[in-house]
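Priority: medium. Attachment 1 of 2:
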C-alpha cells in the first residue's frame, strides 16, 4: 500500500502514451512522480496500445522514414482533414516537435521498423513502432519503473478538487478504496470519453447503444467531465466522434486494428432490409473510411452488410473474423440473416446498372453504375462469380473530440481564458485543441508524445517553483 500521506511533485492521471511521456519527462527533470492507471496491469496503456505509427516531420531520410516530410506539407495535410478546425500555432508547434520526439522515444526503449521500400506513402510520413503500440507502451513502462516512478494500477482519479484553477488534491479509487492524493502539480492524460456509452448516447441518441468501441473500456471521460464541471475551458464538438466501419462481430471494447474492414469500395453495402444506402465507390478508401462508421450508425439497428464476389476477395486486408461465403447471393443473404429476395433484387439491379470499364483496384477507375440510386462511382463491376462473400459491419468508435483547452505549455485554460495554476493536460483529453474535426493517420500519437513531453517538462518546472 503506497504512503498516501506524502506529497508528490507530479501526479500523472492515465496510463497511455501521453501519460507515460509526461511522467518520464517529469522524472528525468528530477521530480517525484506518481502515475495512476485505471486499468489493471494486464490492460494498461489505453488506446495507445492499439496504435501502429506516429506521423513525423523530417527534413531528410532517416533510418525509419524515407525522403522528407516538411512542416508546410504536414500542416497542409492537417488543414485539409480538419477543414480549418485547428489552431495553427499549436498545430505547427506540434508538427515541428515530432522531429525531436523520435530520439526521445528511442531513448525510452521504443523501437521502430526500418522504412519500407518507399513506394507506400505512409513510409514517408509515418514512423512504425516495431511490435506495435503494445511494445511501445511496455518500453515506456519499463523506463518508468527503472527511473523510479511510482505506478498504481486499478486506480481511478474520481475528483480533482479545484479552487480557483488550482488543484488542491485528487480523490482516487484505489482498488475499490477511496483515497486522497496530494501533489504539487497534476497532469491529466486520461484519454477521451468514448467508452462511456451513456455520454455517447446524449449526442447520438439510443443508436449509441449499438456502437462498438475500438479501444480501451477505461476511457470513460470521468476526469474530463469533472474538469469541465469545475469551469475548465472546453474545446471540440461534444457530439462528434471518429467512427469507422468495423467487422460487426468485433467485441464491444478493445477489438483494435484487426477488426477494421477495408472491403467497402469493392462491395455493395446493404442495410438490414437488403437495400443500398450510399455510394460505396465515392473516393479512394483512405479518404472515405472515416465516413462509413457514421453511415452505418444511421442505418436501422446500426448494422450493414458488405457483399462482394470472389473477384474482390484478395483486394483488401482481411478481417480477423472469417468471411461468410455461399454459392449463391440468396444463400449468402440467408447466412447473413437478411431477406434473400431483397438482397437478390438489390444485387441484380446493381449488376444491370454497371457500365463496362477498366477495373483498377489501386486508383479511381471510373467503373461506375448508370441509372442507379444511390450510384456507385468507382470499382463498380457485376457481382456474379461464386463464392459470394459477406461481412457484417458496425460503427466502431475510435475517439471523441471534446476536450479541455490548453496553451502551448500544455497548461489547462479555464473558461475565462486564465491558465490553471498547477494543472496540465496531454493526449486525447486535449487533442480537440488541435484536431477539431477529421483525422490524419498517426497524428494522435504525435499530439500525445509532443504534449506529454511538454506537460512533463512544465509540470516539473511548476513543482520546483
Ligand atoms: C484501434 C486504434 C488504432 C489506432 N492507431 C493509431 C495509430 O496507428 N497512430 C496514431 O497516432 N493514433 C492511433 N490511434 C489513436 C491513438 O490511440 C490515440 O490518439 C492515443 O493513443 C491517445 O493517447 P492518450 O494517452 O491520450 O490516451 P490513451 O492511450 O487512451 O490512454 C488513456 C489512459 O487513461 C486511463 N484513464 C482513463 N480515465 C482514467 C481515470 N479516471 N483515472 C486513471 N486513469 C484513467 C486509461 O486507462 C488509459 O490508460 C488509434 C486508436 C485506436 C482505437
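Attachment 2 of 2:
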Amino acid at each position: 500500500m503506497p504512503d498516501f500521506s506524502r506529497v508528490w511533485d507530479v501526479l500523472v492521471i492515465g496510463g497511455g502514451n501521453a501519460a507515460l511521456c509526461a511522467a518520464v519527462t517529469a522524472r528525468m527533470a528530477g521530480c517525484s512522480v506518481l502515475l495512476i492507471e485505471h486499468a489493471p496491469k494486464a490492460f494498461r496503456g489505453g488506446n495507445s496500445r492499439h496504435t501502429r505509427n506516429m506521423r513525423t516531420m523530417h527534413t531528410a531520410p532517416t533510418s525509419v522514414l524515407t525522403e522528407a516530410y516538411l512542416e508546410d506539407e504536414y500542416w497542409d495535410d492537417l488543414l485539409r482533414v480538419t477543414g480549418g478546425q485547428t489552431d495553427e500555432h499549436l498545430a505547427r508547434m506540434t508538427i515541428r516537435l515530432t522531429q525531436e520526439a523520435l530520439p526521445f522515444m528511442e531513448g525510452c526503449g521504443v523501437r521502430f521498423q526500418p522504412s519500407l521500400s518507399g513506394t507506400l506513402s505512409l513510409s514517408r510520413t509515418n514512423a512504425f513502432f516495431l511490435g506495435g503500440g503494445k511494445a511501445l507502451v511496455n518500453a515506456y513502462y519499463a523506463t518508468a519503473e527503472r527511473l523510479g516512478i511510482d505506478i498504481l494500477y486499478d486506480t481511478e482519479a474520481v475528483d480533482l478538487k479545484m479552487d480557483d484553477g488550482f488543484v488542491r488534491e485528487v480523490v482516487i479509487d484505489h482498488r475499490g478504496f477511496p483515497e486522497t492524493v496530494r501533489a504539487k502539480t497534476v497532469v491529466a492524460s486520461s484519454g477521451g470519453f468514448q467508452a462511456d456509452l451513456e455520454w455517447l448516447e446524449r449526442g447520438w441518441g439510443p443508436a449509441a447503444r449499438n456502437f462498438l468501441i475500438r479501444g480501451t473500456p477505461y476511457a470513460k471521460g470521468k476526469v474530463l467531465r469533472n474538469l469541465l464541471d469545475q469551469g475548465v475551458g472546453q474545446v471540440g464538438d461534444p457530439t462528434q466522434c471518429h467512427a469507422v466501419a468495423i467487422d460487426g462481430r468485433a467485441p464491444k471494447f478493445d477489438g483494435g486494428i484487426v477488426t477494421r474492414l477495408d472491403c467497402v469500395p469493392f462491395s455493395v453495402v446493404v442495410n438490414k432490409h437488403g437495400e443500398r444506402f450510399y455510394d460505396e465507390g465515392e473516393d479512394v478508401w483512405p479518404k472515405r473510411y472515416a465516413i462509413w462508421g457514421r453511415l452505418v450508425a444511421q442505418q436501422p439497428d446500426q448494422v450493414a452488410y458488405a457483399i462482394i464476389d470472389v473477384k474482390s476477395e484478395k483486394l483488401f486486408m482481411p478481417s480477423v473474423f472469417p468471411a461468410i461465403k455461399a454459392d449463391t447471393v440468396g444463400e449468402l443473404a440467408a447466412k447473413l440473416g437478411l431477406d434473400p429476395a431483397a438482397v437478390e433484387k438489390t444485387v441484380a439491379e446493381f449488376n444491370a446498372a454497371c457500365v463496362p470499364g477498366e477495373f483498377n483496384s489501386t486508383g479511381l477507375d471510373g467503373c461506375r453504375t448508370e441509372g442507379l440510386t444511390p450510384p456507385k462511382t468507382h470499382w463498380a463491376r457485376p457481382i456474379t462469380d461464386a463464392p459470394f462473400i459477406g461481412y457484417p459491419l458496425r460503427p466502431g468508435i475510435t475517439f471523441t473530440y471534446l476536450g479541455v483547452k490548453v496553451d502551448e505549455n500544455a497548461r489547462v485554460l479555464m473558461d475565462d481564458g486564465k491558465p490553471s495554476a498547477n494543472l496540465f493536460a496531454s493526449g486525447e483529453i486535449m487533442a480537440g485543441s488541435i484536431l477539431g474535426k477529421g483525422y490524419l493517420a498517426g497524428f494522435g500519437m504525435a499530439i500525445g508524445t509532443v504534449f506529454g513531453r511538454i506537460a512533463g517538462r512544465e509540470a516539473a518546472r511548476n513543482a520546483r517553483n
